[in-house]
Amino acid sequence: MLAQLTARRLHRRCANRRALNPTPHPNTKPLNIMAISWLAGSEGRTLAVENLTDLLLAQLRDLYDAERQLVAGLASLEQAANSVELKRAAREHGEETKRHVERIEEACSQLGEVPTGATCHAVRGLLADIETVAKTDGDLAVKDAALVAGAQRVEHYEIAAYGCARALARRSGRPDVAELLDKTMGEEQEAERKLRRVMAGVLNPRAAITH
Amino acid sequence: MAGSSWFSKMVGMSLTLDNLQDLMVQQLEDLYSAETQLIDALPKMANAAHCSRLKAAFESHLQETKHHKERLERCFQLLGQQPRAETCDAMKGLVSEGSEVINATGDPEVKDAALIAAAQRVEHYEIAGYGCARTFAKRLRRDDVAQLLHETLQEEANADKLLTEIGESSTNPAAAQA
CA of B164, closest CA in chain A: separation in Å? Predict the structure, then answer.
């Protein structure tokens, strides 16, 4: 059992090294999820999932890139918004997002890994939509509603991803990592609720005042 | 998928942001395309699943998804609209992530956990989309449309909860042994 575990660890360490090396040894087979994750956005290679920790790291790297993109994305959202509430929500969540980036750095460092190396294509696409709305003319309230619809999709992407990562961390016996992810998860859920209130205000300003 | 998902399509069709009705219809079209793509993807995910509970969840969600598509058709009918044949690129991206997991090698239980991670991203995309569309329908006083969207939204939320439950009670404990 112990020998097996050690062999697996060694195997993984070699795989990690391969992931860093652009020209793999001819005898090595592609293995590590971190280099070839569906979340890492590498095309044309087969994903290999060997253990939960690798899957957790892939999720963390995906989220790290997503959060870093969002720091810039939320600043654009704030600029594009007309509603004062939407501007404020974007600004406040932008500040939180910087802390989310740091938490993932901390989580990865606790796992002895680095969070870089992946591109989150999903969030890139969703932010491109928000950019397109920002550049479009039209009724200011409808435009704000379209911006919120875009932001909601991003929040939900993160809620799904943090939910999975937190479950994987717990199950991998890493409550320290799970706790960090849980904090961010709570803030993402609150941001999503806030967006719903902002949407209500954007669509019906009078109702928003009375609520 | 970058730069060409739900909203870019709307601008590509030279719609403007002048009225909420246009925005709602566009959201419905985006969801219609998403559901159509899922009807193709879910049988493959069910096939790829190792855990029997996960397999059954994908299979039963496939049946629900067919109903969701019919409900959207009913919404278009109520609004006197025809759904345009366009692709929701965000869903295309999420489904292609799912395909990579389907073709993945490695431990079958860890692969199940990865399938759940991909499927929950899809569910949450739909939850966000249906939530916004329902809000717009209510604001436009189209309670008939809002009610149909509400029913689907509930089923998507339940599907997401079921995936969490299967992950926590079945697939993740098994994958932790890998």
Answer: 8
